[in-house]
């Protein structure tokens, strides 16, 4: 019997990817379920949290994914991507913090694991396409043949900010079946399909850091690697160079942060910059955080080819930021300059900058 | 196509399975639903499947079995079946040599997630399918021999008799006497009982090889945490335990040496007799994990010279949850748990009678067939190995020449073994790589690493372990499928140098 080439579904054990698997199976597609084992949660036992749920690669999640696969009669496998994940996501994450940047590991994971190694594995076991539970839409530009990405219909769940690094080749093999649905509809479909995990809570953003306490994670990771994190201590100073206090590591501070500075001054102070070279944390007033221009590197153009003229776009500089209008000008070497119409607060090195034109994702890069 | 007594029975139809079509004259769905293919294992080689037809819709009742004629449409044998039917309650059972073993196998190994893909099982070192005759004996034991073997009354006596019969059957397989067999829950418990039962005090010294099964190595680790001193014997590049340093590493405090008979990953047969001779001359107890050897190669605990020998039911075509430990008469062993006087006090707890009966039945078949079956399977293994090496470049066998006849472990340079296992599984072939961790993801095999393979080489290695359920056609199909998968994987591999 001839049958359609299989689609590999990345199954995390959560509601979204489970619904993807169930929907495609119902449509009569030939499905393979795969769970990526990315991080061994037992590696840093001091971080383990009683009752923490939604952490990636916990045995509970694998259990759930396997149960859903069996429910729908989908061949299912767990694949070990721990080495790639540590090299491409965890180490850069730690290094970025120590370099005074605020990284977004999910984008690295998407670029170098989920849409790279995963696609490769899917192809090597005979799957022509992959499907994930990401909230984003894809279409092909009939005129140019380009793969285009659009924001998800559900703006509260839109994940295009984390997907800006995907190449045309990757997008051509990818399905995002949930991009056209509201999350509430996905829950409803989950219940209709009888998906075993239909009522499970959504997972948190940084999957390998329990509680979201990334500073504790970095400390624990250093201890595991035999590095003493106390070397990262230094001074807190204001913009004029006046020392206001001491801190316990630059990786504990991120641009725009107000809480946890441990210094009492008359007016509210915010982190303006972290300087890993001198271990300094510079603080200032809220106005000092406002900037209108920045550059981004390693830019990936998605829905359009690299523009030769400056383009008008709405630019998002962090996940929760409301995209703000400005001008994007391509520079040599895969960089861009962005000039906002209005100054924006806390443009943070290490974060992504994603350029939109309405729903269309033009491209994105890494803030320098 | 089966056609039962056309002249006698108009309008009768028997259901057909996808693999084995059976019909009586015209196809009548009502009858179709009531029939099942039934495998009546007569000789342990499951060469005698039969067709069992439910009689609920009428049509057979009252007819003499000998009136049935059946024509077998078996692509392999084309056998004609007749005169071999008999009545069985309200079911009609036709017993006949209708097919080859592979017909049975394909039918048994139903692919529940990909119904259109036939399944072929090449992972007998992980576990073996239960033999139909073993399952029948287990079922009878569960339903009819439910007494407590320790009871005085006849119900208990009957259960005791079944257990002792099984003990004798297992003893025969190992060349032991029945009193030297202790039934356990499986290989892991047997290994734990052997090791923890001998090394009972801190500062004692115990020795094992680095390629032992985790149930030995992890028990050793636990003993080390309790203050026991442990030394591990290295292996050659072929995976054979070295014996040249035995006299240097043994101490006055050495109480136990534990070396497996055959390795689960490579099939390497270890120099157990040599080690045992050395150890016993010094009063050191010798344990041998024989889980992968029993039933695959002839085993004689007396000529091996070991004091303790572990076996597992489910590697012998019996179900999971039953195992045994041979305990040479006179060996001092502390039990793992406390309770009644079952199993001479070595293993308290009411006996798992159905499991023990199944294990006994499986052991008897293994003892009877090992000489013939090891030759048959060995030829298949050699065919597989030669075929893979010839059709896929840059491959090599991991392991020595002297191996269990059913095992070959092959390294495919530049291939991710995990992806290869998945790709082959999706084509219906069950093979294995490395060791599955708790999530089901794969870690490189500690055995291959101990043999000096790099992590990459270990991860590109696949274990094929054959058994009763394989034949030449399956082997040839596997070679073709593996060649195709390997080609695709290498085209996509960033590390494989494309010539």
Structure report:
The complex is a heterodimer of chains A (368) and B (499). Chain A folds into 3 domains: 7-133 and 177-212, Rossmann fold (3-Layer(aba) Sandwich); 231-284, Adenine nucleotide alpha hydrolases-like domains (SH3 type barrels, Roll); 290-367, Translation factors (Elongation Factor Tu (Ef-tu), domain 3), CATH 2.40.30.10. Chain A has helices at residues 15-26, 59-71, 82-98, 105-124, 168-172, 183-193, 214-225, and strands at residues 7-10, 31-37, 76-80, 129-131, 137-140, 147-150, 174-175, 234-238, 243-247, 270-275, 280-284, 290-301, 311-316, 324-331, 335-345, 352-357, 360-367. Chain A starts with 6 loop residues before the first strand and ends with a strand. In chain A, helix 1 (15-26) crosses helix 6 (183-193). The model of chain A has no long low-confidence stretch (mean pLDDT 88). In chain A, the strands form 3 sheets. Chain A has a 6-stranded antiparallel barrel with strand order 12-15-14-13-16-17. Chain A is an alpha/beta fold and 368 residues long. Helix content of chain A is 24%, strand content 27%. Chain B is an alpha/beta fold and 499 residues long. Chain B folds into 3 domains: 1-99, no CATH class; 132-365, Aspartate Aminotransferase, domain 2 (3-Layer(aba) Sandwich); 370-492, Alpha-Beta Complex (Aspartate Aminotransferase, domain 1), CATH 3.90.1150. Chain B is built from 14 helices and 20 strands. Chain B has helices at 29-32, 101-108, 132-144, 154-174, 187-198, 214-225, 246-249, 272-280, 301-304, 353-391, 417-426, 446-450, 455-459, 472-492, and strands at residues 35-39, 49-53, 69-71, 80-82, 85-88, 91-95, 120-121, 181-184, 205-209, 229-233, 254-258, 285-289, 308-312, 323-327, 395-397, 407-412, 429-430, 435-436, 442-443, 461-465. In chain B, helix 3 (132-144) packs antiparallel against helix 10 and helix 11 (417-426) packs across helix 14 (472-492). The longest helix of chain B is centred in the C-terminal third of the chain and has 39 residues, at 353-391. At the A-B interface, strand 2, helix 2, strand 3 and helix 4 of A face helix 11, strand 19 and helix 14 of B.
